[in-house]
Amino acid sequence: MTGNIIHKINNLGGNTDDVSVVKSFVENWQSISFTHHLYDKDWDVYGIDEFYSKHKDLYINDEKKFYEDLLKHYFSDHELPYGQYFFRDWFFTPFKEGTNDQEEFDGLIEEDIVQKVVKVSKPDFICIFYSYGYPDHFFICTADPEQSNPTVYSTDHEVYFDEIENEGSLDEFLDRFMTKDEFLDVVKEYLDDKLNK
Questions:
Q1: H or E stretch including 129?
Q2: Please, what sign has the CA dihedral across residues 165, 150, 170, 18?
């Protein structure tokens, strides 16, 4: 895993203390932790109007505390559908004989379609993120030849691996997410525009 990727994960609030150059990508990814969800830069301020309505008095009396509470709420461990991405680290092995995934998805996923995109025979994957958007699953092939900066692939539960897209390198993929400060800037701009109309 490159230093730049580690730096980006840290800036996004991830803990990379156990990442090591001697580990494989999968080992490193499974050693990373996030205590909160991530939001992409195309995020559409889901739930902000409701949060503001419930905490309007706090906004008027203590704007700083309002934004602290908002960050705590949005960056907590919850399942409310705010358009967030959930950090994941589970394996998906649809082509490995004897696995639950192979039994469940046998005949449902065309290996030729996947192999054409991934360029690895009988690929195994690790899910790195799940989201409420489309597509909603993001994977890395465990045998990616570029272990320090592997390619991210996306698919959706509606067309699970019948449609698979190359999302670019992990380094590029991480650029889509906002830091907490960037998230706060988006919310402040939205509320300033809304309240000053």
A1: strand 125-131
A2: positive
- Measure CA 66 to chain center: 26
Q: What angle do CA 41, 46, 47 make, to 5 degrees?
A: 140
What letter represents residue 121's amino acid? S
Omega prior to 135 cis, within 30 of 0: yes
Listed in sequence order, the residues at least 6 apart from 78 whose beta carbon sits closer than 8 Å to its beta carbon are none
Q: What is the pLDDT of residues 69-111, one digit of tens each?
A: 999 999 988 778 899 999 999 999 999 999 999 999 988 899 9
Q: How far apart are CA 34 and CA 24, in angstroms?
A: 19
Q: What are the structure tokens assigned to 146, written together?
A: 């570029």
Which residues neighbour 146 within 8 Å (Cβ) at sequence distance 6 or greater?
A: 169
Query: In the structure encoding, which two tokens stand for residue 178, read together?
Result: 């906002």
pTM over 0.85: yes
